[in-house]
Every structure is written in C-alpha cells, then in structure tokens.
Design goal:
Layout (H helix, E strand, L loop, with lengths): L1 H21 L3 E6 L5 H19 L3 E6 L3 H9 L5 E3 L2 H10 L4 E8 L6 E9 L14 E4 L5 H15 L3 H4 L2 E4 L3 H10 L4 E6 L13 H7 L8 E6 L3 E2 L2 E5 L4 H17 L1 H8 L5 E4 L6 H10 L3
Helix pairs in contact: 3-4, 4-11, 5-11, 9-10
Length: 301
C-alpha cells in the first residue's frame, strides 16, 4: 500500500511538473549586441507579432544585450529561452555549461554553404591596400565573444602575416560590436577592423548578408569608402539555440515555426537574419566542435 501511495505521489508530481513546464506564458528572446538597439528591436518585432499564436504563449519579450556576453549569461542563467549566437558565443556557453542550451538550426547561404567569413576592412583613402600594410598599425576587433570579430582572426591571422597578432600589429582594441567597429574604422579610430560577411556576392554590395550588408541597407555605409584587406577561411554559421530545460512539446513548436519561416514570411526571415539566405538547416553540437576546440585552446572558455 505504501509503495502504491509513493508511486501515485511521484506520478502526481511528475504530471504537475509537466503541466507547469508546458504552461510557458512568456517566451524570452535574447538579441546579441553589435547593432544599435532600435534597429535590433525593429528587426525582431515580427517575432513578437507572430510567435505567441504559433507556439501558444501570451507574449514574446525581446532582450537586446549591450554585448554578446549579456545574451550568453542570460542563457546560462536560464533567464532567456531563445537566441541566435555566433559560433564562438555558443562555444563559450557550451564550455561554461554544456547542457544549458541546444543548437537547433543555422542559416544556409544563397550558394548553399553553411558558413561565412571574417573580413578585415580599412578606409579606402587610408593608403592601406593589403594586409601587409597593416604592420605596426592599429587593428580593431568587434567583440571578445565574436567568432568573426575576434576568435577566428586571432587564430588565423598569425599564419597569414607570419607573426603573432600582438607582434605584427602595433595595437589592438575592441570597437563595441560589429556596426560600431566599422564606424570607428571610418572615423580613423582604427586603421582596420574585422567584421562578418557571407563572402557570397560582391564586396561592393556588402556581400549578400552580414554586418556590411546590413549597414549598406540601412544607409549608414557606402562600400566605396572601404577596401577589403583579408578574408578568413569559412566559419560555421552560428546556431539558433533553445534553453535545454524547455519542455519538448514547446521545443517542437518553436522548431516548426522557424523551419517554415523562410517561406511563410520571407521579410521576417531576412530581417532577423540580416540579409539574403536560402533558409535554415538543422545542426547539433558536433557542427561546432572545431570552434569549441579553438576557443578552448585560444581563449580558455
């Protein structure tokens, strides 16, 4: 009798827990820093409008962080349910707490590739026309947790220039996100800076997607003012991640919504992703293992 009572109690607690887990009232989306807050909120407004009905919540709230780490800490602390991270940001999250989030999708470029590039740009009128001209000059990075804006250049530039970053460049610093970094390059704060681009299409257009393209589309960048000095090897596109502890039924609804988004609402898809993409592809942690290993070896976490 006691055994049956205990089993009944366990079943009741389990059922109550499942109901509570499914009864998610607010879906919390973290948005990485790197672009001004008003633009980020405007680009994600379509999710505020469409997601509640699609996944069965009362409201969707947007949390635009000042930098990459703000979103990462929200995911680690369980105060965010969803975010799209760069590969290095995901690696940092994974190394801090492997089961905090799970990657579900990444973007596919218009040419079918699932990667993008770090590009180094300088002012066209600076007299700097190639990577070698940057010897002894000041290089700007986007954000310490950015894949294209810091990790990949740190790992791959030494081979390209034949020396460690700290020895080849006269000085380095951070621009406070991708958009601001490019603006600081244009101001002359940095002689050149690293940002992200699809590498698909033409540099003169800001490529098909990425920070440069977003800035061109917003009218705050004329590509005639920049010259490209260097382009990295292909970097895995960053993941859309969900809080791992989220109830499976809710995860399935979110996955279904985003899987259909490129066709159901192309304008929303382009707005949240920042340019032209073919669609989404499913990914898991294995897709990011090289970046996780690189971050662990280079930054340590």
């Amino acid at each position: 009798m006691l055994k049956k009572t205990l089993l009944a109690a366990v079943a009741l607690v389990a059922t109550a827990g499942a109901v509570a887990a499914e009864d998610l009232k607010e879906f919390r989306i973290g948005i990485l820093g790197g672009e001004n807050e008003a633009d980020r909120l405007r680009n994600f407004q379509c999710l505020v409008d469409k997601l509640p009905a699609a996944i069965g919540v009362e409201k969707v709230s947007l949390f635009p962080a000042a930098d990459y780490d703000g979103v990462i800490q929200g995911l680690l602390g369980g105060t965010l349910d969803f975010a799209e991270l760069g590969a290095s940001g995901y690696a940092k999250t994974y190394l801090a707490k492997a089961d905090a989030v799970e990657p579900i999708f990444t973007t596919v470029q218009t040419d079918g590739s699932m990667g993008y590039h770090s590009v180094m740009v300088a002012r066209k009128d600076s007299g700097i026309t190639k990577l070698e001209d940057m010897k002894g000059k000041k290089l700007g990075f986007a954000d310490p947790d950015s894949t294209s804006g810091y990790l990949v250049p740190t790992v791959t530039l030494p081979e390209a220039v034949g020396a460690p970053v700290k020895e080849f460049f006269g000085e380095t610093g951070f621009g406070g996100g991708h958009e601001n970094l490019v603006l600081e390059v244009l101001k002359g704060t940095f002689d050149a800076g690293t940002t992200w681009a699809s590498g698909v299409g033409e540099f003169k257009d800001g490529y098909s997607s990425g920070n440069l393209r977003k800035m061109v589309d917003k009218g705050i960048l004329n590509m005639d003012d920049l010259v490209e000095l260097w382009k990295s090897p292909l970097i895995p596109n960053g993941p859309i991640v969900l809080r791992t502890s989220m109830e499976d039924g809710m995860k399935a609804k979110v996955k279904d919504f985003f899987a259909k988004l490129p066709e159901s609402d192309p304008a929303c898809f382009a707005a949240i992703e920042g340019g032209e993409f073919k669609g989404y592809a499913e990914v898991n942690v294995d897709f990011y293992k090289p970046i996780i290993d690189a971050r662990k070896a280079t930054i340590g976490g």
